[in-house]
Amino acid sequence: MKRTNIWVWLWLLPALLQAQGGMWLPLYLEKQNEKEMRALGLKLKADDLYAPNRPSIKDAICQYSGGCTAEIISPQGLLLTNHHCAFSAIQRQSSLERNYVENGFWAMSREEELPCPGETATFVVRMEDVTALALQNVTEGMSERDRQAQIDKNIAQIRANARREKWQEAFVRPFYYGNQYFLFITETYTDLRLVGAPPSSIGKFGADTDNWVWPRHTGDFALFRVYADKDNRPAPYSPDNQPLRPKHFLPISLSGAEEGAFTMVYGFPGRTDEYLPAAALQQIAEVTNPTRVDIRDRALKVLDRFMRNDPAIKIAYIARYANIANAWKKWLGEMQGLRTYKAVEKKQAYEAEFLRRIGENPTWAMRYRHLLPRLQETYREIEPYADARDNYLETFLRNIQVTAAVASVGSWLGEYEKGQVGTFSARRTEVMERVRAGFTGYYPEVDRAVFAALTERYAQTMRPEWGGAFVRRAADERGGFEALAQYLFAASAFTDSTRWKALMSIPTADSIARRLQQDPLMTFWRGVSTPYNEEIGPKWQELQGTLNLLQRQYMAAQLEVFKEKRFFPDANGTLRLTYGQVRGYSPRDAVRYEFRTHLDGVMEKYVPGDYEFDVPKRLIDLWKARDFGPYATKDGRMPVAFIATNHTTGGNSGSPALDAYGNLVGLNFDRVWEGTMSDLYYDPAICRNIMVDARYILFIIDKYAGAGYLLQEMKLVRPK
Ligand code: ARG
Ligand code: GLU
After folding, report:
1. Which of 79, 312, 352, 713 could make an S-S bridge to 74, C-beta 3.0–4.6 Å?
2. Would you state the pLDDT for residue 2?
3. Which of 158, 154, 181, 184 is nearest to 169 (CA)?
């Protein structure tokens, strides 16, 4: 390295160390980030990334079907997102004869593209700070309820007055715990058609074993095309619709990204809690996450046992298993990460500094002294309720299937019991149809085993007066948890579609209601839900209200007391930009992870016939022949995935990773195991996001699928 380079590095060092973490607001990039981003290597201006009144890169980014991100990669509306985001759409298009989940799908022409009703692409037209309007007539002494009512009224006004076209939506979201409000004008396209998806052995390679883990070898991508009406506006599916002509689309780089390179991820992160006090992190690590993890652990073991023994059950439960396992594994990584990297201690040090600073300023001291003690006290107070709530929700609404159905019918039945017979009858078809539809792919014997395992745990862990004793008594009466499950499942209408259909055909509302009231699963459900509805839920709600208020004040205090620090608002499902550098990491002593994986690594993991690690023959052949076309790295290997210090979370799946010029170099889909705590505490030493290398995506489309015609509408570039 030349001497001058070293000096440049030293000069940049403080900036580089600071430039870690954060999900920034696109409209404040110039004010908050541009200088630093340029020091890190960005070659664009802030308003190339976000401009309200002319095309900018943000116009290529959209929220995909509510929960993921996607981006436009051609002038003809080609849309790229993750395979796991598109999974349910792909599954819905599949049948035994045309198993696109298993074998992949490639439209070889526009005519072959598959309409996917229900999938959506939402673009942000512009955003505005509307804090002053949203908080108009809000005063310090107001009760929380009056305050919220006033804000709701203000927001309704803001939305009504928002300048927008008739096909656009307007909504307002709180930021910084309600210290700021932003208005969003968006437009949502609903005619999306599936263009391409690799087989699961590529798109889901490594499945649950590799999920949340680096090194990773998954080609987690899928392609759609967005269609619009003849005026290029959102419209429901019609054969007359035309491919969207986007305001901007992302060029794709064939140069990749090397270690140290600047990258940024533009997308819709869902939720983070970066400003909680140490007490809250401790509770998550020691109480609530362990409860959730333990419940899911037991449910997953049961599912796994059945799925291994019966291929039909495996097909029916594969998506459910992946869903339950995804959060299970993240919570596990999160609690381990919080401990290993001493997040609680670091937060405590931060809080000590907060106290020190306010101690030196009498005004601050007076206004903020109570905050941390009150937060700590309230977290202590909420702990048993928070734990009981998680126990209840995880057990009966997220892991046992039948009780989730009983619960929804139960609240409908409640309307009848309150005398709202009209509403009850009006919703009848909708509610009962939903339960009926739920029988597709439902295996009562699987659910019964989950029920037995989880109710036993519930009796052991839930306070007697909060439902623990009720469940124990129910089991004792039948001779154990297994027997209780047998009895309830054999007698209930909720576990058998024939019995349910018979119930549906009962003519009068009164008789239906009576039958439902007598259903043994309904009686059981009421035994566990009553203490929740009467005690746990309301108390949790009340304390959570107190916490929300305290967090809002604590957030405002932090913004004021740490003036020199930049605070990004917690993720809330709105458009954000995060940036960082391509970097390996060292998870523990003597272990160093490199920043990129290759096709050779896919072959190292290959287990013929395995449902997670099988590799399609055609891919093996390409690898053997080293037929990588123009997509290989300089040293002739096929890149698959890479990591960087971008601060991402759930919802960032499918987000583009861009290089310094705004070219697509990767597709975000995950984070590394050791860094999953980054939703609560971001540590630049170990938190990394995982992206599919754009070159692997092109290689799969072109060389593997033979759909190279799609590359002709893309703009492939080779910067430097
Ligand atoms: N962990 C990634 C995310 O949170 C990928 C999940 C999909 N993959 C899976 N095996 N469940 O969404
Ligand atoms: N896989 C996640 C998603 O679907 C993104 C990974 C993360 O949580 O960072 O949004």
Report:
1. 713
2. 43
3. 184
> Is residue 4 over pLDDT 80?
no
CA of 318 to the centre of ligand 1 (A): 13
Helix or strand (DSSP H, E) at 474? helix 468-478
CA nearest 339: which of 16, 676, 584, 708?
Answer: 676
Decide if 228 contacts 244 (C-beta within 8 A). yes
Q: How many CA atoms lie within 13 A of 119 on its CB side?
A: 28
Q: Is 659 a catalytic residue?
A: no
For ligand 1, the distance from its centroid to the CA atom of residue 326, given in whole angstroms, is 6
How sure is the predictor about 15, in pLDDT bands with cuts at 50, 70 and 90? very low
Give residue 315's pLDDT band: very low, low, confident or very high (50, 70, 90).
Answer: confident
DSSP type of residue 679:
G
Contact 195, 710 (CB under 8 A): yes
Architecture of domain 3-120+190-273+569-717: Beta Barrel (2.40)
By CB atoms closer than 10 A (0-12, 13-18, 19+), residue 718 is exposed
Among 64, 65, 213, 653, the mutation site with the greatest number of ligand 2 atoms within 8 A of its Cβ is 653
pLDDT at 6: 53
Residue 84 Cα to ligand 1 middle (Å)? 7
Provide mean pLDDT across the span 653-661.
Answer: 98
| Cβ partners under 8 Å of residue 541, min gap 6 | none
Among 375-384, 427-436, 530-539, 553-562, the least confident range = 427-436
Tokens standing for 543? 């304390």
- Distance separating alpha carbons of residues 254 and 64, to the nearest angstrom: 25
The three-class DSSP label of residue 63 is strand
Residue 264 per-residue DSSP state: E
Exactly one of 208, 220, 387, 683 is catalytic; which is it?
A: 220
Query: Count of CB atoms within 10 A of residue 626's CB?
Result: 11
Contact 548, 355 (CB under 8 A): no
Nearest CA to ligand 1 atom 7: 84
Going from the Cα of 454 to the center of ligand 1, the distance in angstroms, rounded, reads 24
User: Cα–Cα distances in Å, from 649 out to 82, 90, 482, 619, 669?
Assistant: 14, 24, 39, 31, 9
| Catalytic site includes residue 653 | yes
Q: Is residue 597 a contact partner of residue 216, using CB atoms and an 8 Å limit? A: yes
pLDDT of residue 5: 53
Distance in angstroms (rounded) separating the CA atoms of residues 425 and 258:
63
CB under 8 A, 24+ apart: contacts of 166-174 = 167/233, 167/234, 168/125, 172/130, 172/134, 173/572, 173/573, 173/574, 174/134, 174/572
Average pLDDT over residues 113-135: 98
3-state helix/strand/coil string of 177-233: HHCEEEEEEEEEECEEEEEEECCHHHHCCCHHHHCCCCCCCCCCCEEEEEEECCCCC
| Encoded tokens for 107 | 């439209």
CA 90 to chain centre: 19
Could you confirm whether 614 is annotated as catalytic?
no
What backbone torsions phi and psi does residue 236 show, to the nearest 5 degrees? Answer: -65, 165
Query: Which residues 6+ apart lie within 8 Å of 674 measured at CB?
Result: 333, 337, 340, 341, 585, 587, 686
Q: CA-CA distance, 169 to 18, in Å (whole number)?
A: 37
pLDDT band of residue 18 (cuts 50, 70, 90) is low
How many CA within 13 A on the CB side of residue 352?
Answer: 6
